[in-house]
Each structure stands twice: as structure tokens, then as C-alpha cells.
Amino acid sequence: QRYEIEYEENSEFILNKDPWRNAKIIIAGDNFGCGSSREHAPWALLDFGIECIISTSFADIFYNNSIKNGLLPIILKKADINVLIDLAFKKEILIINLKEELISGRDINISFNIDKIIKNRLINGYDDIELTLKSENLIKEYETNKNKFFDWKYVE
Fold first, then answer.
1. E-strand stretches of the chain
2. What are phi and psi for residue 3, nearest 5 degrees?
3. What DSSP element (H or E) covers 141?
4. pLDDT, tens digit, 9 for 90 and up, residues 90-147
5. Fewer CB atoms near the end CB (10 Å): N or C, the chain?
6. What span, in angstroms and rounded, lies between the C-alpha atoms of 12 and 22?
């Protein structure tokens, strides 16, 4: 746990130690975000300064809430996670390049895959409303022409 009684920092908690105190990436175990069905978990991580979570798997709701709030979830194989954990404990700097889908360090390059729609959303910082407004012309066209497609619903 991060804090002891009376909100004193737990000196053994990894994110209370340097250099991890200023970490922007969490390298996690399996099924990260399990039990978190609200947006508060990604909000808390973002408020702490975390920008990316790397895991072998994520709870579905957490994964989607992360994307909607601008937190990058990356899925990697366990072997790659272990390499990153070793580097993190050696206090190596890791860089996430979302455009190139690449995690790099001094001696490593690990590729990851992310859906192109999610990638575009995160790179541009789009929220649900902005994504909807990008289809405004299609929505207007549909609304104008919907009677042509569903005239049976409007029988008098």
C-alpha cells in the first residue's frame, strides 16, 4: 500500500521510491484493472502522472475506460514484460512511441500492436463527442434519408 497510518508514505512501496516516484509507465502483471468497472481508476492513474500501463492482459472495462480517458494500455507477451521489468529495476529509461508502436530503451526495441482507431484517438486526444462530431455529415445524411430506408415504420 502506498501510505501508512496518518498518510505517511510507505517507504517500501515502489512508486514512493526514486526514480519510480516520477514514473509515467506501469509495467504490470496479468489482468490489470480487474475489479475496476468505473472510470475512477484511469482517472487516479492519470492524476498520479501515469500515461501508459503495460500488461499481458487487461480487464475489459478498465481497458476501454483507459482509452476513453487518454491512458495508453499496451498488451505484451510475458517474456517481453519480464525484459521490461528487469530494465525498470535497473532504473533504465524506457520510451513509448505510439506512432511507431515501439517501446525502446538503451539496448532494446519491443514492438507492440494497437488498433488503428485507438491509436488515432490517443494520438489526437479525441473523446467520444469529438469522434461523433467527425461523422456529423454522415449523421445528417442518415437523418435526412432515414424515411427512404425505413418507410414501413411510418405507415399512417
1. 25-27, 52-55, 72-75, 95-97, 102-104, 109-111
2. -120, 150
3. helix 136-149
4. 999 999 999 999 999 988 999 999 999 999 999 999 999 999 999 999 988 888 887 7
5. C
6. 16
